[in-house]
Amino acid sequence: MKRLFFLTALCLALGSGLKRVTLTRHRSLRKTLRDRGQLSQFWKAHKLDMVQYSEDCSAFTAANEPLINYLDMEYFGQISIGTPPQNFTVVFDTGSSNLWVPSIYCTSKACTEHARFQPSRSSTYQPVGIPFSIQYGTGSLTGVIGSDQVTVEGLTVTNQQFAESVSEPGKTFLDAEFDGILGLAYPALAVDGVTPVFDNMMAQNLVELPMFSVYMSSNPDSSLGGELLFGGFDPSRFTGTLNWVPVTQQGYWQIQLDNVQVGGTVAFCKDSCQAIVDTGTSLLTGPTKDIKELQKYIGATPVDGEYAVECSNLNVMPDVTFTINGLPYTAHLPSLHPHGVQRRHGLLHQRLPGHGRRPSCWPPLDFG
C-alpha cells in the first residue's frame, strides 16, 4: 500500500535514503491570461461561460479531461528522460496517473515553445506504439506511448512508459510554464493501463518506504514553492502529530471529509462526504449548489466571467473550516490579505465555477 501524507495542505519528507524534489512556484496560466486581459477571450475561444459553466456538466464524462484544470497549476519540478538525459519541467499531479511530455514531432507552437523529447537522441528509448489521447472538452492531447528511463532527483526508473504528445489543444499550453505532467495517482486512473512512475519506483525498490509527501509553501512572494519527497516525510515541515487519513478508494487520493463549517457552524457535508487531495491545482472544489451558497456567505458576485469579493470586506468574512478525520483545518480569509490573494481594482477574484477531474461536476473555489 502506498501512502500520501495529508496535513493542512500536504506534508513532506526527510531521512536517510529519501529523495527531495524542489518545487518552484510560478504564476498560473489563469493569472497570466488575466494580467494580459486575455482571460475572457479564452472563455469565448473555448465556448465557456464560467458563470453558467457549472449549471450543466452532462457534456463531460469520466474520460473527459476539462481544459481548465491546467489553468491553475503553480508548483513545478524537474525531471529528465532518456540517455543522455533530456530535461523537462513538470507538474507533479496527484489528480492524474500518466507522465506525458511534448514530442519533437509536435510542431504546434504550444510544443515548440517548450522542451520536446527527441527519442532518436536517447540510447535507452524503446518505442511502444500505443496511441495516447486525453480529451479536453474542446480538443485532444494526442500522442504515442514510448518507454525510457525517467530520473527524478537521482532516482532512475527504468523501462518507464510515458506519452509523447504530438498534438496539444488550441493555444492553452502555449503560455504554460510547465512542459508536461507527471501523475502520482493510482494505476486505476492511468490512460492505456500505463504503470505510474511512483508505482515503478516502488516495484524497482528505489524508495525506502512506499510513500511520498509534499510540502507547499504558503509564501506567494517566494519562487521556492516547496518540496516533494519520495520514500518518507520530513518532521521539520509540520508541528504536532500527523493526521493519518485512510484512502477510501484507490483511484484519486480520495478521503472522507467530515464536514465543512462556515463561521463555526456546520454548513456543508453535514453527514460527511468524499474529497480528493490534488496537488495539480491551486483550487478548492465542491458541489455546485454548495459552492454557490458559500459564495453568498462571503459576498462573492460575478465579475468579468469569474466571481469576486470586495477586499474591504475581508475582515468581516467568516472562517471556512474543513474537518478531516476529526481535526479542523481552517481557511482564515482575512489573513490572506494583502499577500495571499490576487487583487484587481479592489477586488479579490474567486475561480467559480468550473469543472474538475471528478466523478461529478464540482466547481472550484480559489482563496489564493
UniProtKB/TrEMBL annotation:
The lineage of its organism: Eukaryota, Metazoa, Chordata, Craniata, Vertebrata. Its main location: other. Gene3D superfamilies: 6.10.140.60, Acid Proteases (2.40.70.10). The active site is at residues 93, 278. This is cathepsin E. Residues 75-368 form the Peptidase A1 domain. One of its GO terms (biological process) is antigen processing and presentation of exogenous peptide antigen via MHC class II. Keywords: Aspartyl protease, Disulfide bond, Endosome, Glycoprotein, Hydrolase, Protease, Signal, Zymogen. It catalyses: Similar to cathepsin D, but slightly broader specificity. Transmembrane segments: none annotated. It comes from Anas platyrhynchos. GO terms for cellular component: endosome. GO terms for molecular function: aspartic-type endopeptidase activity. Disulfide bonds join 106-111, 269-273. Belongs to the peptidase A1 family. Its EC number is 3.4.23.34. Homodimer; disulfide-linked. InterPro entries: Aspartic_peptidase_A1 (IPR001461), Aspartic_peptidase_AS (IPR001969), Aspartic_peptidase_N (IPR012848), PEPTIDASE_A1 (IPR033121), Peptidase_aspartic_dom_sf (IPR021109). Residues 1-17 form the signal peptide. It is found in: Endosome. It holds the Pfam family Asp.
